[in-house]
Specification:
The protein folds into two domains: about 40-260 and about 335-470, Serine Threonine Protein Phosphatase 5, Tetratricopeptide repeat; about 265-330, no CATH class. By secondary structure, the chain is mostly helical. It is about 45% helix and about 5% strand. The chain is globular, with a radius of gyration of 27 Å. The strands form four sheets. It has a two-stranded antiparallel ribbon. A two-stranded antiparallel sheet has the order 2-3.
């Protein structure tokens, strides 16, 4: 009897447990919780962190190399003297790869949810970050990168040529993916509001930048492709005004705050570069008041105009008998703009393309549009007589285009440096205190962590590139 009772109780217990677990997932699922992440929710964090990082690297690296601004006082060393440490590229490597992982998640979610617009946006951001990475280092992990979830922790390196082939193809594909009648819902606060066509313009404008970057590699046919984009604005819309440019707006309201926790840090112990101020003076340029403070006499009681100090100088800081100009603190005080790609750059790309095709009138027109766009983007008024100044007028040379492009690319991540490496313009003054035989560095060294944790693939990449130092030219420079 005991055994029968025990069996009955066991059966009842099993039935009870089955009834408890039958609808367990349904009963215990929060109806208000989202099961799948929207790709749009990833956009704002990516835009904020990447654009903020880009701005900081423009400040602490590009400005120094390209003589926009430098530390002052500066007794010895420093990037402006071409003193580039082994770890100088660490943050660039880790930051971009971290956010490329997020872009990958954004792309994956957009494919799963059949949202072609966010898919195209993810491809555009992916191309932007990988282009900066490869232009800073050369060959980099790409095909096997951001695949830690698959157990790939020591990725192989991809040649720069293959990186460029991939990202240019992706940008072309992205252009065809956009559905301008399908609205965006998330990630619209900082860039382009909810305008899909604006993102499409960015995709094609970025492709113009990268096609021109490969201008020395004539076997790639990129100038012909660039001509196709310029001549087909219906299929390939690009920026045509400042209000269409890829400029992130930081309101100053958390979380969209300035990348500088204290704006004063931007101008503390800093001075504008003499090269930067001298050209603006030659142009009688209205951007000076927007970008710079005036220099003062030694005792600081009188303004003496806009005047910086030379980068890479040797000797004591006491050699300067004036207090040099500094950058305007308003540049990093929210509400503020962070430039990913300016409209002026598109016009300067067109100017160079027309110059290369011997279309003087078209080159001049694009050059003047680019200069005007840069001046107005920075909040200044374009003088009606600006181009009557022989120092500012188009003179039919690539050097003149690149000098104004240098200013158009102000505060745009590494772009001034990349364009100098591509063209050799603008011609930068040399100074006695510069190291590296007074030769502009052309890349970062690979981070020490990569050397020690991914040694085999690092060694293969270094062998393919011909070394790992700051003078090894990347593929598109050769």
């Amino acid at each position: 009897m005991k055994n029968k009772l025990s069996i009955v109780l066991s059966l009842l217990m099993l039935l009870f447990m089955a009834s408890c677990t039958k609808n367990f997932e349904e009963v215990n699922t929060d109806p208000n919780r989202v099961n799948k992440i929207s790709p749009g929710t990833l956009l704002n964090p990516i835009l904020y962190e990447v654009s903020s990082f880009n701005m900081r690297k423009a400040d602490d690296f590009t400005f120094n190399l390209m003589q926009d601004m430098l530390p002052f006082p500066s007794v010895s060393g420093g990037v402006h003297r071409y003193d580039i440490t082994e770890t100088a590229g660490n943050s660039t490597w880790t930051t971009y790869y971290r956010w490329l992982t997020n872009v990958k998640e954004m792309y994956k979610a957009s494919v799963e949810q059949n949202d072609p617009n966010y898919q195209a946006i993810a491809m555009t951001l992916n191309a932007m970050m990988y282009s900066n990475l490869t232009d800073c280092f050369g060959d980099i992990p790409m095909e096997e990168a951001t695949r830690g979830d698959e157990g790939i922790f020591r990725p192989k390196f991809t040649t720069q040529q293959k990186v460029y082939e991939k990202i240019i193809a992706d940008l072309d594909s992205a252009n065809n993916l956009y559905v301008t009648t399908k609205p965006m819902i998330y990630g619209t606060e900082m860039l382009f509001a909810n305008s899909v066509i604006s993102w499409k313009r960015f995709t094609n404008s970025l492709q113009m930048r990268l096609l021109l970057r490969l201008s020395k590699r004539t076997e790639m046919g990129t100038l012909a492709k660039l001509r196709t984009i310029v001549d087909n604005p219906t299929k390939y819309p690009v920026f045509t005004s400042n209000d269409q440019a890829a400029i992130v707006k930081l309101s100053g309201v958390t979380p969209f705050v300035s990348p500088w926790g204290r704006a004063i840090d931007f101008t503390t112990f800093r001075a504008a570069g003499l090269f930067f101020t001298d050209n603006l003076n030659d142009f009688n340029d209205p951007r000076r008041a927007r970008l710079l403070t005036q220099a003062r006499n030694k005792i600081g009681n009188a303004n003496i105009g806009y005047k910086g100090i030379p980068s890479g100088y040797a000797g004591s800081d006491n050699q300067f008998d004036y207090i040099p100009s500094n950058m305007n603190i308003a540049l990093v005080t929210a509400p503020m703009n962070v430039v990913l790609m300016p409209y002026a750059e598109v016009e300067m790309i067109k100017a160079e393309l027309e110059f290369r095709n011997n279309n003087t009138a078209a080159a001049k027109a694009a050059y003047e549009k680019g200069v005007k766009a840069s001046i107005e983007q920075m909040g200044a008024v374009m003088p009606t007589d600006y181009f009557t100044n022989a120092k500012a007028a188009y003179n039919g040379t690539l050097e003149r285009i690149m000098l104004q492009k240098y200013y158009a690319l102000f505060f745009t991540d590494f772009q001034q440096w990349f364009e100098y490496r591509r063209t050799g313009f603008p011609v930068m003054p040399k100074a006695a205190g510069m190291l590296n035989n007074q030769v502009m560095p052309v890349r970062y060294r690979y981070p020490p962590a990569v050397q020690s944790t991914n040694t085999t693939n690092y060694d293969l990449a270094v062998q393919a590139m011909g070394g790992d130092n700051i003078n090894i030219k990347v593929w598109w420079e050769k």
